[in-house]
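Researcher: I've been going back and forth with a colleague about how Beta-carotene 15,15'-monooxygenase might be arranged in three dimensions. Neither of us has a model we trust, so I'd like an independent prediction. The organism is Flavobacterium franklandianum, in case that matters for your notes. Sequence below.
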Amino acid sequence: MKELDLLKKDWQKNIAFEQVSEAEIYKMLHLKSSSIVKWIFIISILEIILWTVISVFFNTDDYLKNIKHEELDIYFEALTVFNYAVILVFIYLFYKNYMAISTTVSIKQLMRDILKTRKTVQCYVWYNLGMVALSLLFGFYIAFAYNPDVAVLMDKIGNDTKVMVITIGVFVLIIAAFLGLFWLFYRLLYGTLLRRLFANYKELKKIDL
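Model: Here is an independent structure prediction for Beta-carotene 15,15'-monooxygenase. You can compare it with whatever you and your colleague have in mind.
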């Protein structure tokens, strides 16, 4: 009986040690996840500041004046206002996700918040890539439809099917290259953070089993 009592005591010690270890692991993963989501929130703010600064140097008003179609400026302004409104909504969601992860005390809730944050960031990246594609297509349409210099060029190559195909191919490659660069930018910027966040999720899943 004495040996059995000693064995029970050792078993209880091991259980207590395991519980403390899991609590410490959860605390560490909680802090790491909160820090990652905070950086996602900060980077999104820095990103919108960056695009705002860039838009100041690349003003569409001068271009529209040069092609004598200032009336198109209202469409650019509407697109810009819509884009900023959507991005501000995403920034609010990032902040909301950060507050949710920072204050949660449940492993299951933390796992749900991580997945929710991951999905929000993925939607944000796809939205931005879609806006880049739309902006490029809109810009090319304005150039082809309203820029007299481009119109003269198109008239010269209009009867040459081979040159027309090459021209269209070049524009498609330009759009693909820009989308590829932006995709790489977002993959390096947000993708790295999301991979770390998902690694935390997998570690939490092990604890929750």
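Researcher: What would you highlight for our discussion?
Model: I'd start with this: DSSP finds six helices and no strands in the chain. After that, consider the following. The first helix runs from residue 2 to 57.
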